[in-house]
Amino acid sequence: MEEARLILAAAALLLLQQPPAEKCKYCRDDPKILSAAGLVGHGPMPFGKTNSDDVKRFLSYADPLFLESAHFRIASTLEEYKIPEKDWKRMWAELNELRKLFPSIPPKLRVLDPWLRLHLYAQRCEALYTRFLDLVGNKEGDFRKTTTRPYMGEGRFLGMKDKYEVFLHKDMRAHLDLLKEHIGVSRKKPQMWHFTDRGALTVSIPAIDDLRTDEHLHANVAHDLGHNFVCGFRHYSFDPPVWIVEGFAHWFEREICDYDSFCSEEAAVADMYTGTDWKAGTLRILERGKAATLADLVHKKSFNDIGREDHVIAWSKVDFLVRGVPQGFPKLLNGIKGKTDDRNLPIGTDLIGTQRDVVRAEFGWTFAEFDAEWEKWVRKAYVPQR
Ligand SMILES: [Zn+2]
Ligand SMILES: [Zn+2]
Predict the structure, then answer these.
(1) Alpha helical stretches, state H, 138-277
(2) pTM for this one?
């Protein structure tokens, strides 16, 4: 009797020390289900400076989950999430999409577990990737390393060799620990990074404060991927103009909702615009004669140079390129990212001159004429229809 009790106690202790390896109940790690869903699996996989097993060991206290999809590697320590009532309709629509692949997801769910959150973010990241392809007018097979012109990058992920990576942290500690270990940086904001040896663009996001709200986190992921897609497009050989990077990131984020993320360099605090109606905001800034000209914007050298109203104007000029000029956005982006030298390698010098040349060659405008056309469009497109 005593012996049996001892054995039971020992077994209970063992259970406490080694929680059973939890398996994802949606895909069950089943290769057939995974491949039908366009997914690779829950790892192991390369990630950051090393790989998912190494990251799991290093962040053992946070117990991250991993999921690899067609174009992403996603890590998450996000906890279960109770969907706010106002978001039921929107998130149930997303979950209905996911249920087509994983029928075990119950309808009208009110609480998401960590595995489901991970699968939902994989679905969202892939949707953002597809949307970006659509915006630049390219398709999956267009990107690969070739010796012939046009230069389309170094690999098949929009021009990058490896997949895009996203780490979603439930708190600050693991975000800081990981950044310090993998890139030697200490930063409390989302941090993008290029792991050059693999050709992978990564973002690490502490989902705290505002970003605890799932819709805001989704928007922030869109913003950060907006950066990485513009940088990675036809390979990240040089930093593209900051007004396009930040303007597009705002534009991409605002397709999700009107939550706004603002980027700044290392220690600085971004100059944040607080209004939520950026169309009305653009018109007000124009009325006051304070709208940054394109000539102003192309001279911005870092995110710290972008003032609070410049964020709105950069967003609006990208909006004009996407919605107001046929093929405007891909024409400008391709003009900048596709310029190559005699050896068919990207040229990232004199980006101001390049932008001037592209605007003239593609649209037939000077910078001032671009601004005049933009203003004409804005005054029509942003006035509320009655
Ligand atoms: Zn799964
Ligand atoms: Zn940004």
Answers:
(1) 172-183, 214-232, 242-254
(2) 0.93
65 Cα–ligand 1 center, Å: 10
**From the CA of 100, how far away is ligand 1's center (Å)?**
14
Please write the tens of the pLDDT for every residue from 45-101.
999 999 999 999 999 999 999 999 999 999 999 999 999 999 999 999 999 999 999
Closest CA to 223 of 270, 156, 173, 280: 270
Q: Which one, of 129, 132, 153, lies nearest residue 322 by Cα?
A: 132
Beta bridge partners of 168: 76, 205
Please report which helix (H) or strand (E) contains residue 11, including its range.
helix 2-17
What DSSP letter does each residue of 192-212 carry, written as one string?
Answer: EEEETTTTEEEEEEE--GGGG
Handedness of CA 306, 311, 317, 318 (dihedral sign): positive
Going from the Cα of 252 to the center of ligand 2, the distance in angstroms, rounded, reads 10
Spacing, Cα 73 to ligand 1 middle (Å): 13
* Whole-number average pLDDT of the chain: 93
Q: Give the per-residue pLDDT at 146.
A: 85
Tokens of 152: 């389309």
Instruction: Return d(Cα 386, Cα 378) in angstroms, integer.
Output: 17
- List, as ranges, residues with CB under 5 A of the ion ligand 2: 246, 249, 263
Contact 332, 358 (CB under 8 A): yes
247 has pLDDT over 50: yes
Cα 354 to Cα 62, 346, 362: the distances in Å are: 46, 12, 12
The bound ligand whose nearest atom lies closest to the alpha carbon of 114 is 1
Q: How far apart are CA 178 and CA 186, in angstroms?
A: 9
| Amino acid, res. 348 | G
- Closest to 300 measured CA to CA, from 321, 314, 288, 312: 314
- Give the DSSP letter string of 93-109: HHHHHHHTT-TTSPTT-
